[in-house]
Amino acid sequence: HFATTHPKSKAKDSKRIERSMIICSTMSTLGFLGAGQMASALADGIVSNGLRKPNQIHCSDIWKPAREKAQAKGYNAYELNSGVCENSEDAIFLAVKPNCVAAACKDVMESKDSGALIISIAAGVTLETLEDSLPGRRVVRVMPNTPCLVGEQAAGFALGGLATDDDRRLVKELLDAVGVAMEVNEILLNAITGLSGSGPAYVFQFIEALSDGGVRAGLPRNVATQLAAQTVKGAAEMVLKTGKHPGELKDAVTSPGGTTIAGVEALEKGGFRAATISAVTSATKRSMQLGGMPDADIQNKYGL
């Protein structure tokens, strides 16, 4: 049996390729202030998906090895941010640490305005702060997560007051190159921080615990970890691809009086569900606190 490609799928792929060629042919350039892991993952995903050519990527970093790594991929690399600001036509990603954002914004304002959209992936830096530092510029705030490094990002983004529908489409297209991105009201970026921003750590802990259980039951560590990780990956794919509620998928595995329901009972006795909910809400509250929201407002407005 040989798998065949559905005609609609072929047409969709051909349209995507054609559109990518059109985008590339305009020579619209993208910039990254900071060439660390997250910036590199975004740039690599954008290029590998045909949304830009390597020579349409401009990035800056004070660390020479980061610039050399970028240059080896065919990207334009600079020590100074001004090189990126003056050569980026479509968008400039602020991919620096939060305490470096003010300086990066200053460099943007002191450089020639190319009309580029400013996209911040700096954690905790609000749209208000960005817009105060970048008067008159269109800005977008993004909360990515580390699976961006393997092309499986789950991100949220919020538009600033001057951002347009075209900006919305551009941000969605660029972020979707390394996973999934959803637009939300900015205040909900705190919840996204608690869920998908911090979520990989919870899942890593769960995988480690599954592996520990396998070892306790007699499996070699390498076998247990591989099976645990693949189990989580497979279960996630089932949720995404079937569109079924996780509870329905769980019920399909739990036979009456069987092994799975015994394991589920043990998780419930251990408070697994409540602990997971608390992890998300605690991280969300902490995100609000780091953003300067008073505890009284967090309690009164959001019940956290």
Computed over alpha carbons, the radius of gyration is 22 Å
Low-confidence stretches: 1-27
**Strands across the major sheet, in which order?**
3-2-1-4-5-6-7-8
Determine the number of helices (DSSP H or I, runs of at least 4 residues).
Answer: 14
Strand fraction? 5-15%
Proportion of helical residues = 55-70%
Mean pLDDT comes to 91
How many β-strand runs?
Answer: 8
Order of helices and strands: HEHEHEHEHEHEEHEHHHHHHH
Shape: globular
* Class from secondary-structure proportions: alpha/beta
**How is the main sheet built?**
8 strands, mixed
Distance between termini?
55 Å
3D structure, described in words:
With 304 residues, the protein is α/β, with parallel strands linked by helices. It is built from 14 helices and eight strands. It has an eight-stranded mixed beta sheet with strand order 3-2-1-4-5-6-7-8, sandwiched between helices. Helix 5 links the parallel strand 4 (91-94) and strand 5 (117-120). Residues 1-27 have low confidence and may be disordered.
Which properties best describe this structure?
304 residues; alpha/beta; 8-stranded mixed beta sheet; 14 helices; disordered N terminus
Task: Put the structure in a nutshell.
The protein is α/β, with parallel strands linked by helices.
List the helices and strands and how they pair.
Elements: H1 7-25, E1 30-33, H2 37-48, E2 57-60, H3 64-72, E3 76-78, H4 81-87, E4 91-94, H5 101-110, E5 117-120, H6 127-133, E6 139-143, E7 153-159, H7 165-176, E8 179-183, H8 189-197, H9 199-216, H10 221-242, H11 246-253, H12 259-269, H13 272-290, H14 295-302
Parallel strand pairs: 1-2, 1-4, 2-3, 4-5, 5-6, 7-8
Antiparallel strand pairs: 6-7
Helix pairs in contact: 8-13, 9-10
